[in-house]
Amino acid sequence: MIAMKKGFACGLLGVLFLIFQGGCQVAGGGGSCHRPPDSIRAGEPTSLQLEMHAYNVAKMPITKRFTEVTLHYRLSNDKTYSSISMKLIGNSSKSVTYEACLPPIAPSEHEYVEYYFDFYFDGVHNGDRSESKTVSVSSS
Prior knowledge:
CATH architecture: Sandwich
Shape: elongated
Number of helices: 2
Strand content: 35-45%
Structural class: alpha+beta
CATH class: Mainly Beta
């Protein structure tokens, strides 16, 4: 009975070791952080940044794990989105920051800007319009 318990405990520890040490071929997890501006000033370009984090970064540099980072936006009177490829502006071993600049918006023509980000993380598409942000356009 003791040998059976010992064998089970060793087997369980072995499985846990494989899971926590990356024995599976599943990529490490990740996440993103974006702080929308309170408002967008009409007539001025607006910088939007997206910071992304990843775990288990020893297998591949983080700059290769997040690809095709894109900002999609539309103005209050538009039905379709425009797209801007985002530029890498900073990285560390576990995070990257991308930036895109919205072009100046004509004063008094638009009430808000709606936007969202999308990108590929380890080859898997992330992002959709259901996660869009809406920010008002101010003239002052």
